[in-house]
User: Which sequence fits this backbone?
């Protein structure tokens, strides 16, 4: 039994592909914790799932669209999905309901009875799930949910749950254990096989004209009764294994169903939050890897939208064909916010979610990496510039071709010439490997030298500044300028024009 | 029937009393004890090392073993004999069980099982040996012996009867119904297997990656009293089969053929040694069959190495340094000198080991070797002082060397390591000279490790072997030995070079 709501064909592995240190850096740079918290809505399970799924970017547009359809379907049938989730939670947490403490799982007989006690409530959950699907399967439109409900209808066909119940009763061995064996080395029994003991009346008839012989263990003989348990265990071993694996599977199925539904529930939580704040959302259009598209309207940074009550302005960018986007311009002009909005939207798109924008079309990438200016390394192992280089080297260990790298004032902790030199080297290497780079910088040397190359794949945006010094937080295509309006900042802080005294 | 008796000895009585042998005196000094322990480690026969305590004194006996060794290096002979030895081990384990178990029906069961292993082992060996032709006298005769044994009446009856008994027993299947404390045993009446039913029902819940929940059943060969009672019930349900089993066991109590059993034990000497050798040949070291002579004083080897040291460093993935040495014409005594930790003792041991292993008829750790067959190998290594002897250290050493010299013959080999060092240099030199002169007078082969360069040029029977150091770094030992006069300068010269104090350099520096 398979869930397949995150991928149409197989259960994707939810363990992280990148080292934790790198993941945490990216999430910290993009301030994704706000996004996760909004998806979780206070539920720790939802939080964990949101993190796992968002981290595992999908690079196949078909799978992204598959998830988008399921998400839309979930939004349309929210009640049913929530009921399904409730059943999945119950199944997943079956161990809490069945008290198994005190059982020692050394004998197949004990393992079997432990698993039977788990399976009994699980079969009830399966029945509930079947009933829910019978009632509502027709409402679903997405391929993913239709596949799931069809699978449930098929695997749990009408009489199957009853068959399970009957077997579970028989497996409790109400008439003792009947086993057969052959003689092995040293005339010791081997090849133990379990049989169903006949019903009593029939058995009496049978033994009446048979030559069998028997004996009885003294009730005080503990070793004897232990020996009987061991003997039965030999015949029960296979069955105990099968039944326990089945219990695992059913529990695993509910666990998986719970996990995959949790992602969609998380998306709906986020949707509620954004809609309440009047943030526009849309399903982005993913284009294949390597196609170099990026066109958006009113793209906003989800993190900022969730953090503030104030309205957040969005950006419209037409950067189809860009392999490098260099962002320059005013301090506090929204460069970092823009950079985060690009990274977050990319990650959300590649998780199969909607994005905070009225439209977005972008190519998928092999992962989003960030290199943001950071506080001094407090472990004292590196100087500031050392730390930057070490961090870029850690990224280089894992970044692959056709990934995305977001740089925010990288290599600015040394003098500009040196920083620009290193930055150019890094950028050239990344571009050569097909990595899409968005680089926010105030290093005029760097931006200008790149601009002068006249490469059609290089895009230059500038944080726009109106004549009255009010930031618009909008990015416009423009040639890099030699100042970043530090004067504005100075005036802001000191209240008078620099050099006015 | 062919006249084969032993695969190790041309004279079958040579091994009489072998189980009571103890290691020769030179064993510990030459690290032969470590080597032999390594060779026999893991072998089922805990007395296999005894065969290594019995060096040969006859060139033809050595040749007999060389030929068998060469045969066993061939895959077409090694594989079937390896398999045979493994089968025989299985047989012995089963017999061992049969003897240790208590319940008669179980003992009989294991006995039949052991006999079955024996029959299989011998029959397979006959078939395999029939497909190939050994070139050694020993294995050819053994193959003939096995062939005629397998065709003999005794073996054929054994095989036929055991087949019948086992077939009957294997047909038995019985059911046991356990209900509470009641146990009922009956003949099996084709009841369906419930596990298959369950597996079919739960199949849709199966996944490839599922964890295995099978409990590992402890499979003791013996039974508890419940199983015994069940077995008695089974015997009652199938009386004829068990009567037959009983008759077989009484009749074939002494089935094991003595010659085959002896071969099984002795051939392990070859197999264990070859397996040991393979560890080193895989690492690039070379072994060879030495030419063996009766000439006293005939010693020559290329690329020889200390096998005990090689076994030790092999575990760390390293290899040892190989050395050449030989005695020519009147040469009788290797005098080994050189810096401390330069491998002097190792070379002395290597020479002793080669001589001993050659006398066992084994391939030796050298790419080429000619070796004399000594009547005995004596070692004179430094000993811990003990109160028991009531002598001082030097006295003790002198007592020991006196003892050795009174027993040694011109055909002996004496290995001496830093002897008489526990006195002044003058005394040491004087005693060393005296002893060496006696050895030279005796005319036997000797190895003398010393820090006294003078001894190296004492007599024309002395061959000087000097340990070398690395040219560019005199603090590093090369563990290589060359045949040249001992000058005691190699190390000093190199050190001088390193610090720019070599004569020419120093002259230039001073003249500047």
Assistant:
């Amino acid at each position: 039994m398979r869930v397949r709501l995150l991928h149409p064909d197989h259960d994707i592995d939810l363990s992280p592909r990148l080292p934790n240190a790198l993941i945490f850096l990216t999430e910290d740079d993009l301030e994704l914790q706000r996004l996760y918290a909004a998806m979780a809505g206070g539920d720790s399970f939802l939080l964990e799932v949101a993190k796992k799924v968002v981290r595992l970017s999908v690079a196949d547009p078909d799978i992204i669209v598959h998830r988008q359809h399921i998400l839309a379907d979930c939004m349309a049938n929210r009640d049913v999905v929530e009921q399904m989730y409730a059943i999945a939670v119950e199944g997943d947490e079956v161990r809490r309901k069945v008290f198994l403490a005190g059982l020692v799982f050394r004998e197949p007989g004990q393992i079997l009875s432990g698993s039977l006690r788990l399976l009994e409530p699980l079969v009830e959950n399966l029945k509930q799930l079947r009933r829910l699907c019978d009632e509502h399967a027709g409402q679903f439109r997405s391929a993913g949910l239709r596949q799931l409900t069809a699978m449930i209808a098929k695997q749990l066909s009408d009489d199957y749950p009853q068959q399970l119940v009957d077997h579970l009763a028989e497996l409790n061995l109400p008439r003792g254990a009947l086993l057969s064996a052959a003689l092995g080395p040293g005339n010791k029994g081997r090849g133990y096989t379990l049989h169903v003991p006949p019903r009593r009346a029939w058995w009496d008839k049978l033994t009446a004209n048979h030559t069998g012989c028997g004996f009885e263990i003294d009730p005080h003989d503990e070793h004897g009764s232990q020996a009987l348990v061991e003997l039965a265990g030999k015949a029960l071993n296979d069955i105990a294994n099968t039944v326990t694996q089945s219990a695992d599977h059913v529990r695993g199925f509910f666990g998986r169903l719970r996990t995959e539904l949790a992602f969609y529930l998380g998306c709906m939580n986020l949707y509620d939050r954004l809609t309440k704040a009047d943030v526009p959302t849309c399903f982005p259009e993913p284009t294949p890897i390597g196609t170099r598209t990026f066109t958006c309207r009113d793209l906003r940074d989800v993190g900022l939208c969730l953090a503030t009550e104030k309205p957040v302005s969005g950006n419209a960018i037409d950067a189809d064909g860009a392999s490098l986007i260099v962002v320059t311009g005013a301090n506090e002009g929204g460069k970092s916010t823009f950079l985060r909005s690009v990274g977050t939207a990319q990650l959300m798109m590649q998780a199969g979610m909607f994005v905070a924008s009225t439209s977005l079309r972008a190519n998928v990438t092999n992962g989003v990496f960030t290199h943001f200016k950071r506080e001094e390394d407090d472990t004292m192992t590196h100087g500031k510039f050392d730390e930057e280089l070490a961090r870029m080297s850690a990224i280089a260990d894992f970044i692959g071709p056709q990934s995305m790298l977001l740089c925010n004032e990288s290599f600015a902790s040394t003098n500009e010439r040196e920083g620009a030199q290193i930055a150019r080297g890094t950028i050239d290497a990344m571009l050569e490997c097909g990595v899409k780079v968005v680089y926010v910088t105030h290093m005029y040397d760097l931006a200008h030298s790149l601009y002068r190359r006249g490469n059609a794949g290089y895009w230059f945006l500038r944080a726009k500044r109106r004549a009255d010094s009010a930031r618009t937080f909008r990015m416009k295509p423009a040639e890099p300028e030699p100042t970043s309006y530090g004067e504005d900042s100075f005036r802001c802080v000191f209240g008078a024009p620099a050099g006015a005294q | 029937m062919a006249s084969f008796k032993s695969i190790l000895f041309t004279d079958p009585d040579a091994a009489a009393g072998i189980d009571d042998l103890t290691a020769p005196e030179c064993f510990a000094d030459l690290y032969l004890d470590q080597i032999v322990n390594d060779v026999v480690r893991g072998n089922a026969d805990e007395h296999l090392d005894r065969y290594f305590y019995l060096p040969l004194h006859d060139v033809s006996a050595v040749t007999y073993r060389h030929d068998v060794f060469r045969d066993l290096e061939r895959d077409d002979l090694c594989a079937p004999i390896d398999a045979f030895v493994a089968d025989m081990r299985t047989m012995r384990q089963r017999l061992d069980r049969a003897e240790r178990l208590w319940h008669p029906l179980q003992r009989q069961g294991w006995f039949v099982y052991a006999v079955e292993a024996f029959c299989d082992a011998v029959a397979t060996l006959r078939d395999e040996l029939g497909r190939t032709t050994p070139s050694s006298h020993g294995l050819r005769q053994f193959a003939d012996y096995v062939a005629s044994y397998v065709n003999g009446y005794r073996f054929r009856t054994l095989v036929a009867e055991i087949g019948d008994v086992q077939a009957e027993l294997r047909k038995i299947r019985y059911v046991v119904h356990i209900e509470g404390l009641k146990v009922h045993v009956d003949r099996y009446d084709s009841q369906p297997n419930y596990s298959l039913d369950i597996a079919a029902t739960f199949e849709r819940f199966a996944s490839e990656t599922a964890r295995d929940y099978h409990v590992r059943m402890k499979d003791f060969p013996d039974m508890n009293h419940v199983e015994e009672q069940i077995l008695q019930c089974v015997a009652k349900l199938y009386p004829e089969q068990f009567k037959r089993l009983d008759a077989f066991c009484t009749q074939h109590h002494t089935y094991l053929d003595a010659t085959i059993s002896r071969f099984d034990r002795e051939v392990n000497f070859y197999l264990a040694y070859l397996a040991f050798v393979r560890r080193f040949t895989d690492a690039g070291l070379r072994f060879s069959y030495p030419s063996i002579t009766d000439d006293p004083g005939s010693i020559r080897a290329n690329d020889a190495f200390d096998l005990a040291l090689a076994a030790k460093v092999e575990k760390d993935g390293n290899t040892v340094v190989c050395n050449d040495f030989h005695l020519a014409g009147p040469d009788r005594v290797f005098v080994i000198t050189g810096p401390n930790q330069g491998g002097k003792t190792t070379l002395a041991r290597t020479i002793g080991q080669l001589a001993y292993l050659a006398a066992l008829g084994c391939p030796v750790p050298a790419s080429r070797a000619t070796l004399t067959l000594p009547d005995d190998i004596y070692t004179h290594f430094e000993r811990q002082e003990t109160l028991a002897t009531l002598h001082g250290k030097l006295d003790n050493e002198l007592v020991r060397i006196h003892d050795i010299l009174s027993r040694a013959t011109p055909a002996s080999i004496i290995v001496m390591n830093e002897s008489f060092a526990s006195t002044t240099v003058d005394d040491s030199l004087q005693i060393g000279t005296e002893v060496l002169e006696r050895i030279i007078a005796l005319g036997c082969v000797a190895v003398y490790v010393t820090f006294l360069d003078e001894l190296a040029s004492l007599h024309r029977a002395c061959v000087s072997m000097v340990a070398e150091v690395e040219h560019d770094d005199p603090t590093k030992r090369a563990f290589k030995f060359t045949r040249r006069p001992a000058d005691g300068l190699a190390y000093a010269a190199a050190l001088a070079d390193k610090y720019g104090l070599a004569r020419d350099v120093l002259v230039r520096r001073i003249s500047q």
Q: What stands out?
A: DSSP finds 17 helices and twelve strands in chain B. Residues 489-496, 498-503, 505-511 of chain B have pLDDT under 50 and may be disordered. Chain B touches chain A through 63 residues (CB under 8 Å). Residues 104-130 of chain B form the longest helix (27 residues).
